[in-house]
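Holo model, thiamine diphosphate. Inputs:
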Amino acid sequence: MSTEKIIHGRSAGFFPEFSRRPGNNHTNMHYCPGCGHGILHKLIAEAIEDLEIKDRTVLISPVGCSVFAYYYFDCFGISVPHGRAPAVGTGLVRSNPDDIVISYQGDGDLGAIGFNEFIQTANRGENMAVFFVNNAIYGMTGGQMAPTTLPGQKTVTCPLGRSVTNEGYPLKVSEMVSALDSPVYVERVALSSGKNILRARAAVRKALNNVIEKKGFSMVEFLSGCPVNLKMNASQVNEFIDERMCKYFPLGVFKDIADTRDSIKRSSGVYAPEAVRKVLYPQYSSSSVSRDFQNPSPFFAKERRLKVAGFGGQGVLSFGHMLATMGKLRNFNVSYLPVYGPEMRGGTASCSVVVSRKKIASPVVDRDCNLLVVLNDESLEKFLPELKPTGVLIFDSSNVHVSRLRRTQIAYCVNASDLARELGDLRYANSILMGALAKLMDDFFLQETDKADFERVVEEAIRECFADKSEVIRKNINAFYLGKQAASRWNAPSDGQ
Amino acid sequence: MQNNNRNLLLSGNEAVVYGALLAGCDSFFGYPITPASEIAHTAAAKFPELGRVFIQAESEISAINMVMGASAAGRRTMTASSGLGISLKQEAVSYLAGAQLPCVIVDVMRGGPGLGNIGPEQADYNQVVKGGGHGSYRCIVLAPDSAQEMCDMAFLAFDLAEKYATPVYILTDGVIGQMKESVLLPEPLPPREIPENALDIGRKRSNYFTSIYLEPDELEAHNVHLQKKYSSIQLKEERSEGYLLDDAEIVLVAYGICGRLACNAVDDLRHYGIKAGVLRPLTLFPFPVRACRLAAEHAKRFLSVELSCGQMIDDVKLAIDCSRPVGLINRMGGNMLSVEEIVERTGQFL
Ligand SMILES: Cc1ncc(C[n+]2csc(CCOP(=O)(O)OP(=O)(O)O)c2C)c(N)n1
Ligand code: SF4
Ligand SMILES: [Mg+2]
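Output:
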């Protein structure tokens, strides 16, 4: 069977005329005579027609001689970057699981630049058919070595013949992909003799049937001729395929387990506004105040910039998060910026929290800090200079040793870590320290009504932060009140600054 | 208490996923990278909860190519990454621009070049704003400066992507990505129609997407068409915000986290009696050229405030045709500018 003959009896899977093709010639394909691509195109077009899947087939054109495959097939088409067809196919078939996605790829496209996309897509078991044209050469770019070029075969980039010590052995794609658990069908066929082409025809249909039945990933490898770059005529090419390629790349079925697999079922997207709100909007608010509530104490009239610092693992970030949550629950604008990255591992952790009635400009607290909470000595040393002259310090007196402050600065402390250990878990240190803050706020900054509200908002924030872990919530609330009782003002000889 | 409370404490990275889902995004394809990973974490949790598609791809290359497939299927789709990963995506972004396929790409910038570090930088400006990949193309680039804008701009990004059939970036930095703020969630959009040109059942099977035009005249015509589109984007979509800009003699141009720092710096400068203001681009392509020219009418000097070697500064100079001196206030390497430093260095320019 010659290629010319095949092209002539045009299948209804092809366009009646190749109108996507530029120029004047809208009737012939652009492939060289005797090229395997032409034969395979015909097999695929017939199968698409016979299986009645024209209206839902997307043929992905790779980069290679078949880059213009979308000229010919009477179905959806897309041309994609070199080697990436299986990834594009993944996006297509996940978007519409009823699509029949065909990833048509050459040996350079699939075996070299795009091997990762190919093997990972196979391994995800995406519901698609990969038709892999192994012609042992880079056809389109002028006959360079392919990953499947045979040992000793001369190409323009291995002019002395492929050397297995320099370029390695040819890539056995069918063998490799069939070693994976996910793919359901892997076969290698040859586009050479009439008998082989009939075998190839059946393989195309089998792969497409698997896709129709949503069985997952199928791949057929087609040993194929490139007469131009092999500098051979049609019959020499057939001989090359049958005698030389088949020796290295044995034909046959490597895997066929579609029968043992259930059809893939994918969920369909939920878009009804009510359902979307239900998932994305918080269903419960722990806030006990209305949207227009404002704490009356004058303390809250100004933007307040807070910093929390300590060892990574001391709960520094959750303390900051708690402060921000409290602000949010009382209708403030808040920002919470954790120091992220390497500093978090082992070393110092810190975070900035800004609470304001106005729009917050800089979320970074690195000066004019109103409230500094420190959980270790290093943090005290590092961040005390950032505390405003009128600022407030809260510290864990189990770990932190304060020797002096400005006369205008106030400090409150509690032996939070020790108390937390007594409660059975160091993680309660946070809530204990929050107690110290509450006491300080009571003593200096809050009006009567806000004093009770501060306790309430701490409880609400604890609830919000620990969601439905009721035991954890209860213990943290207890720790908070314990801390508030145990906390005291730190008095020291001021250095009189 | 049952209430439809829409106020959440979200990081910028979380907020952009909420925004995308409310805007009807169908699929997310990503690959982990700090400081953008929380986008993938949030997407992994929320997309499947709404029956939508989440895939952790094997690389940024695969992720953006999956986006290409989903976009060709007519769906709203997105990916997210940072510097290095964006570099890997560039080939496909060029294909997307060439084939006129819409999508949204979030870039939460970190320090570079190379592996750099994970601190905040703004040094992807050139690769994102100027095209980045091969060929003459531009992507629309939005520059949020808060968690709220990360959420809101997801809506705008999908709208613009579809209106102009082109990829749209949401370009921000590690600080905005990591910082949590209160976010008022918008209302979800009603379900959307699959567009006519989609590769999708029920659409014309002659539909196809390509970016290859072998004939030079054809490819030139395609390029001319693209350039016309970019001109019209420049004309219609410039967006910016001013802070104390109306009488400003010193104009600080800054986006993302720097825009916020600059506002505080301007407050301090005004305190010293210096008429300073902030011009914050909300779109980087199109760069807010008209706003810059307007500001130049009373400005004596412009200062580009950025976390890079000075990349946006070129656009500032071009926007005002170098009619005023343009200085640079910057840090690199993942270091933050402080408000004090901006004030101090502005002072040095006076
Ligand atoms: C990123 C990229 N690198 C290189 C190329 C150039 N290129 C085009 S086709 C091709 C090889 C195609 O060979 P193969 O996949 O075997 O297809 P064939 O033409 O043999 O069918 C190459 C290297 C490209 N288009 N894109
Ligand atoms: S170069 Fe080879 S692979 Fe390409 S069309 Fe010609 S024969 Fe076919
Ligand atoms: Mg080849």
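Chain B touches chain A through 92 residues (CB under 8 Å). The first helix of chain B runs from residue 12 to 22.
Archived with the compound record.
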